[in-house]
Amino acid sequence: MSTTKKFAGAALAAALGVATLSACGGGDAKDKSAGGGSEAPKSKTVTLVSHDSFNVTDTVLKEFEQQSGYTVKVLKSGDAGAALNQEILTKGSPRGDVFFGVDNTLLSRALDNGIFTPYEAKGLADVKPEYVLDKEHRVTPIDSGDICVNYDKAYFADKKLAPPQTLDDLIKPEYKNLLVTENAATSSPGLGFLLASVGKYGDGGWKDYWTKLKANGVEVVDGWEQAYNERFSGSAGGKKAKGDRPLVVSYASSPPVEVLYGEPQPAEAPTGVSTGTCFRQVEFAGLLKGAKNEEGGKALLDFLVSKKFQEDMPLQMFVNPVVKDVKLPELFTKHGVVIEKPENVAPETIAKNREQWVKTWSSLVVK
């Protein structure tokens, strides 16, 4: 998901935002019948098309390959929107077998364009029902994550100022000129933050909210990397870049990341989460219509909702599992926060209004 983040160091960049997973090699093999006659070539390679943030531990992936007999090739295709657009353009002749990374902000676009073949993954019954948004099973829920405002703990302690906790707080005068967010037209977290305001204030109130937020000095940059690693004063990258904004739109999982990749590793996260500012993203995967290796694609979808992959996922992509009874790693439970009541907007409502919302937002905030 475009639902993760990048750090100042190369190690974090490998885990978040621009994670680079080397595709495992392997070609096609020919199956032989019991009588020794050859059959038509059957592909033993299954290709996963994804946005850049997909990652998995090598040993976990290799275990799936050994058990299934398939070799997995990962084709990364930029951010979630760009990757999805490419699949829509190649509808019926897809570049791979499974697509991972369409989230609830773009789900209706994918479904309306008919790029997926329905398949009910083995293990879907173990997925929390609130994440199963497509009853026809054209897509399978894989992970969730919360887009939230993060704050620089040191800044607010030094100023003896309580950090904001809600969307309403952000328009108060004491937080003037402190927030940086991403452009809703170019950034997934930027769009998520816009949708948080839509969910909170409704179609009749979000525009007034953003008018007030602009008057209170919100800064808008193109993407997450610039916002978090350059303008935000609380991240390792932001400190090096001398960022002067102590509030940034990022993710609820950002504080554990700051701990994991801190040098030296801090005992406590240097950043916090404003829990009343969040929008929940859910990411899905689906079997691409026209897939060359449909059976391999189905096996891969089964793997993505397996307990093995779901347990591995949090520290690889810094997102939350969607399968019941999967325990989060200690890093998440110790340094992260649980968002009890994130804002949500129905996918069909997003699909109907997204373009107009973004256009209106741009005219209010950017121009």
Can you describe this structure?
The protein is an alpha/beta fold. It is built from 15 helices and ten strands. The chain has helices at about 10-15, 60-70, 80-90, 105-110, 155-160, 190-200, 205-215, 225-230, 235-240, 255-260, 295-305, 305-310, 315, 330-335, 345-365; strands at about 45-50, 70-75, 100-105, 115, 140-150, 180, 220, 245-250, 270-290, 320. Strands 1, 2, 3, 4, 5, 6, 7, 8, 9 and 10 form a ten-stranded mixed beta sheet that branches. Helix 2 links the parallel strand 1 (about 45-50) and strand 2. Helix 7 packs parallel to helix 15. Residues about 1-40 have low confidence and may be disordered.
Question: What descriptive keywords fit this protein?
Answer:
367 residues, alpha/beta, ten-stranded mixed β-sheet, globular, disordered N terminus
What is the strand tally?
Answer: 10
Residues in helix, %: 25-40%
Radius of gyration: 21 Å
Uncertain residue segments:
1-40
Contiguous helical run count: 15
Q: Main sheet?
A: 10 strands, mixed
- Oligomer type: single chain
Shape: globular
Mean pLDDT over the full residue set: 87
What's the short version?
The protein is an alpha/beta fold and 367 residues long. The protein is 35% helix and 18% strand.
Annotate the secondary structure layout.
Blueprint lengths: L9 H6 L29 E6 L7 H11 L2 E6 L3 H10 L8 E6 L3 H6 L3 E2 L22 E13 H6 L20 E4 L5 H14 L4 H10 L3 E3 L2 H8 L4 H5 L6 E5 L2 H7 L10 E18 L5 H11 L2 H6 L1 H4 L2 E2 L8 H6 L11 H20 L1
Parallel strand pairs: 1-2, 1-3, 6-7, 6-8
Antiparallel strand pairs: 3-9, 4-9, 5-8, 5-9, 5-10
